[in-house]
Write a structure and sequence with these properties.
homodimer; alpha/beta; Aminopeptidase; Glucose Oxidase, domain 1; 2 domains; eight-stranded mixed beta sheet; 15 helices; 37% helix; 24% strand
Chain lengths: 464, 464
């Protein structure tokens, strides 16, 4: 059993009880408290994010740029926003890379004494295929630095196995992801420079399981292109153990992934015109593309449905924004950021005035607050609104990274804002076959859309 | 993809950057920051809560008071703490109620025109059985008040169907649980007073699914005892729909649950003696018993393993507490609170000096902070430590309910403290067959134990 809380956690009462600086409470008004309460009530009683996500993940599924599913997702986004009766819904054309995993993806460990083991692997996004079977010995390293320090003959003709785990000591899992990411992004390119035939990379995950995690990797412009595969964390631990006992073992890798010609695709944009300052634009978005292994539920179907939900919440509550609010479903965040770049480029071409841009791309988990990229004065102004979000547990406003799709807008906006939610479970499923609808909790998802709508409402009312 | 955060979220730096009142930062010291960092590092790198919970839920499972599993859990708790090399591990005898669900538990809707439907039901804890099949018409109400207002002939000989949902508008789900709980606790007793033959109660859940949620109900001392069953939320919605079309339909209920003689059981207690003030005691606990339907994972295996982990973390980090710290695995929280009452009673008998008591009984989800029951000055003193927990996202310290097992200690302690974690998913699985180990995330669980240990460390150092 669990008995009820008696936290004075709702309404203005709570706002006045908070431990926030006085500067903040001075800013808060009953009108704003009530408006935000209306937004949360609508989201918790009638939120649509969850059912929209059920369709996107279940009926369309994984949707890598250039795939038929990505195109279905574009049409789904357009039609869904058109049904919402917005002031404007349109597509923004953008050319995207088209990489395909192909049917073959497997790896076998062959011990020098005949012992064998199948590894759970997947190609990293952008990798070349193996062109049949590629068999070689393996050299394990913990970092790009360790690789650089090795004599060439230790690496030549082998697979370089990058096995540095994510650092479990960071409470914020995104930090650990960032620190371990260089192996995945540049491992193959650096390995090729030293004469290696391929790269095997430990999956970027804090979980111990059998899911390989894909993700983007890059080759040097004129460097040799060697195949790059991710191993599940369990698989990486097993391979490392086997190597200790048998350094002569070989791995046989077969992957049929390939790069195809670029394809035409679209950002999907819906907007509500501002009632007072229609020329001032606040953008909120997530990315519509996803990796191909799972359903792209937390990455980033949740960010897309929450962004659309912000517009629906403003309409349903009758809180017409004084400034224009746009939901942008960006294409190609995962392997090119072409959609984000195109959106910023067009904003410049059209001479649009962008006030702020917000992105949700950390999953649809319980909201914690927002990470803000802006000048100190603007950060402080946004922080004066913390008390209004505190009753909803979404009041952690701090300087921090916003989002990959909105960063290209940096020079054109007052503030870039990243929606910040609980990060503990995200990297367990990130870029895997396990990123599916059943991992999303309805209330956690709808609370996220509500907190985004609340901050968008305040910016649209007070400006920046 | 998700790019790394650059939140200055760790270490003293963050403490100094927080928006907390100055009073607080004045209190914080580098030594305390470093000690707390050590606790979190140990928990995140080597935490044992998760593997302990795997055993308790997987090898023992559901463990209702009086059951063989409850006794196995007592022995498991004793042995596990003995292996930790504590200063003292002992059992505290307590007599507990022994209720058994029995093999039969089913309900059939029979339409007056022959239409039928099977309902997902379970007996509420403490209910009498149906003694064969019990068939009657159904009258739906939303509240005890609505029932009281009905003319007797509308109720006599029928099942009273309490169908008020939990209020989805509360962000803190515990509030919604508290508000809807009267139907489950007193529904049958009130229905019997009006001549009803039984009570059917909508499950206390914010999810829409087929799991019936059990939980404690009570009869009046000298009142008639009629059977009480919970319907899944989907089942309750279906029955309500059917009643609109066919008010003469009947429900046939069969339940073989029964009350057995009281049984001897135990609270399991382990302690580390305080280095300076051994006579001053800080208790931390969860409840060892659980309902029988699932594995008692989030309710409350997590609270038990976290409480044991607090002792392990203090030992492993070498942060010997200046005051005595006790982990208490309380028996019988679910249907009697005999263990909690016995612990408080013995504390008085033995003339023990209890400084503070903390309980974790809201699941093993990501920590948010603590709910404190104490005089305003003590609450303020505890709140001066908020900045030390802020880097770990566990800094919401507010007045609020602590825990059912520690409340009997209220008159004997300076502060009762409830560990507060994310509440969104808890009631989806609470008291159901779905409260299983796979619903627990390793990092979320270990972070909880670390935040509990951090606050216990501060209380043991500074007192209250």
């Amino acid at each position: 059993m669990r008995t009820p809380f008696f936290r004075r956690a709702l309404g203005l009462a709570a706002v006045l009880l908070t431990t926030a600086p006085l500067a903040a409470t001075a800013q808060t008004t009953t009108t704003d408290s009530l408006a935000i309460r209306k937004i949360y009530d609508e989201a918790l009683a009638h939120g649509q994010s969850y059912e929209n996500l059920r369709y996107l993940t279940g009926q369309i599924g994984g949707r890598l740029s250039g795939s038929p599913q990505a195109e279905q997702a574009v049409q789904w986004g357009r039609v869904t926003m058109e049904k919402m009766g917005l002031d404007r819904v349109y597509l923004q054309e953008v050319m995207v890379p088209h990489w395909e995993r192909g049917a073959k993806e497997k790896a076998q460990v062959k011990g020098s004494k005949g012992k064998g083991l199948t590894l759970n692997v997947c190609a990293l996004g952008g990798s070349v295929g193996t062109n049949g079977k590629l068999k070689a010995q393996v050299i394990e390293v913990q970092s790009l630095q360790e690789l650089a320090a090795l004599p060439a003959d230790k690496v030549k003709g082998k697979f370089v196995f990058f096995n540095r785990p994510m650092n479990p000591l960071h409470v914020e899992t995104g930090r650990a992801y960032g620190e371990a990411g260089d192996q995945r992004r540049s491992g193959a390119a650096e390995a090729a420079k030293r004469g290696a035939v391929g790269a095997l990379v430990r999956s970027l995950s804090l979980a111990h399981d059998d899911f390989p995690h894909t993700g983007m990797m890059r080759y040097d412009e004129n460097g040799t292109k060697v195949p790059a595969a991710a191993l599940s964390t369990n698989g990486a631990d097993e391979l490392s153990q086997l190597l200790k006992a048998d350094s002569d073992l070989t791995v046989e890798l077969e992957m049929s992934c390939r790069q195809l010609p670029e394809t035409k695709s679209y950002n999907v944009i819906g907007e509500i015109k501002g009632s007072k300052y229609p020329a001032e634009i606040i953008s909120i978005g997530g990315h519509l593309d996803s990796w191909d292994l799972g359903q792209g539920a937390h990455d980033d179907g949740t960010g897309c449905t929450q962004s659309m939900e912000v517009l629906r919440l403003l309409k349903a509550t009758g809180l017409r924004p004084e400034r224009t609010v746009r939901a942008v479903l960006f294409m190609n965040e995962e392997n090119g950021v072409r959609g984000g770049n195109k959106y910023a480029e067009q904003a410049k071409v059209l001479g649009e005035k962008h006030l702020a841009a917000m992105e949700s791309d950390g999953g649809g988990f319980t909201p914690r607050g927002f990470n803000i990229e802006a000048d100190p004065a603007t950060v402080r102004k946004i922080q004066t609104w913390q008390p209004l979000l505190r009753p909803y547990g979404s009041a952690e406003f701090q300087p921090g990274h916003s989002g990959t799709d909105i960063e290209p807008l940096k020079s054109q906006v007052k503030a870039l804002i990243g929606f910040d939610c609980d990060s503990q479970r995200y990297f367990d499923i990130h870029h895997t076959a396990a990123d599916t609808f059943d991992k999303v909790n309805r209330r956690e998802l709808e609370l996220g859309g509500a907190s985004m709508a609340a901050l968008v409402y305040l910016i649209s009312k007070y400006g920046l």
